[in-house]
Structures are given as structure tokens and as C-alpha cells.
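Recall that a protein's primary structure is simply its ordered list of amino acids. Everything else, from secondary elements to tertiary packing, is in principle encoded there. The following example makes that idea concrete.
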Amino acid sequence: MTLTQFHLMLNHLPIFGMIVLFFLMAHAVFFKKENLMRIYLWYFAAAALVTIPVFLTGDPSSEYLKSVFPDVNNELLENHETFGYISLIINLVLGVSGLAALRFFKNKEVLPSWFKYTFLIVALISVVAISWTGKTGGEIRHTEIAAEHTSIK
């Protein structure tokens, strides 16, 4: 398996993982399910870890794409790389802050409200960023989803 194939296969996990985890965590926060919140914090850390190899295989995939398709749109590649980096940072912040909360609030029965709602806001930002990363990645080879091709004639 090449790094490009690995990138294309693995990139869906953090996208769907963050979307599903956001809704699960929102449910747990709003319905005050403390045990579920703590479990989901572990899952956020795992999803953040999966984001690392996805990001690291992005550059070799880009170079491969340029060698096979010399007319590939470099602007699309750069946009995808930029959003990939932003998503990586946000996901790592979520993962690390989730693990830190598990450590620092270990002896508390209830996680502080400020943490829960801040975490949810950052998780929502992560969902938007990583979804946009997926969209820009799809536009590289799937021209049918590019902005100029969205109208039906």
C-alpha cells in the first residue's frame, strides 16, 4: 500500500469520527451523562491521534499527484494542505485538553461546566474545519463537486 492509498483510506476516519463524537458529546453534556463524557474524551484523543498519520501522508500524496497529473490545480492542493494543518492543530488541542481534563478532574464527580461548554465549542469548530478539509480534498480529484460545477443546466 502506498502512502497515497493510506492517506485516501484513512482520511475519512477523523472526519466522521469528529462529527459523530461532537453529537455524542453534545448529548452527554446536555443530558448530564458524566460517565459518557469521560469516555468520549478518550475517543476524542484517539481521533486526534488518527489525524496525525492522515496529515503526515498528505504531502507525499500531493507530490505523487503532481507527478501523475502534472496539470493538477496547485491552488486546490495548497488550500487542502492549509485546512489539513488547521484541522490537525484543532484536533490535537481537543485530544490533549480531553486527556488533561481526565487527569486534572479525575477526583471530581462532575466536570466543570466551563470546560464542557468550551470543549463543545472547540469540537464544533473542529467539525467545521475537518469537514472543510475533506471538501477541499475531494475537489482535487472530484471536479464534479467543485464550486464552478454545482449548478445544474
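The helical segments are 3-10, 12-30, 34-56, 58-68, 74-104, 113-141. The longest helix spans residues 74-104.
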